[in-house]
UniProtKB/TrEMBL annotation:
InterPro entries: Dihydroneopterin_aldolase, FolB_dom, GTP-CH-I_C/QueF. The keyword Lyase applies. It holds the Pfam family FolB. This is 7,8-dihydroneopterin aldolase. The gene is folB. Its EC number is 4.1.2.25.
């Protein structure tokens, strides 16, 4: 079976999305929400939206942001990798999103470091597998 090569994908970036949630392995990290910063890059074919100028033909990033914040703020993950996967899954639940790159930053997680981050890239095929 071979992959069909389609048109190149366009990108929508959501930069520095800030929220608070429970995330961490240590006992003291399990009681209070911590600051998290997310970088989200969505890959989609936006040609139709460019021609039509209609929200129905693109990714409604405002609605997506609301979904991500609602899910993240009520979550309780031990690993930022799991938080990133959860956000990628939300992104890929939108039909037009074919791939999502999610970077999760946990400021202050390490002494002498501004932040610790993990970046994952997930494809719609990963979600359907």
């Amino acid at each position: 079976m071979t992959d069909r090569i389609g048109p190149p994908l366009d990108q929508i970036a959501i930069s520095d999305l800030r929220f608070r949630c429970i995330v961490g392995v240590q006992e003291e990290e399990r009681y209070e929400k911590q600051d998290i910063v997310a970088q989200i890059l969505l890959f989609a074919d936006l040609r139709r939206a460019g021609r039509s100028d209609a929200i129905e033909d693109t990714v409604d990033y405002k609605a997506l942001k609301k979904q991500i914040l609602a899910a993240a703020e009520r979550s309780q993950f031990r690993l930022i990798e799991a938080l990133a996967q959860s956000i990628a899954d939300i992104c890929l639940s939108h039909d037009r999103v074919k791939r999502a790159a999610v970077t999760i930053e946990k400021p202050g997680a390490l002494r002498f470091a501004r932040t610790v981050s993990v970046r994952i890239v997930r494809d719609r095929r990963d979600r359907d597998a």
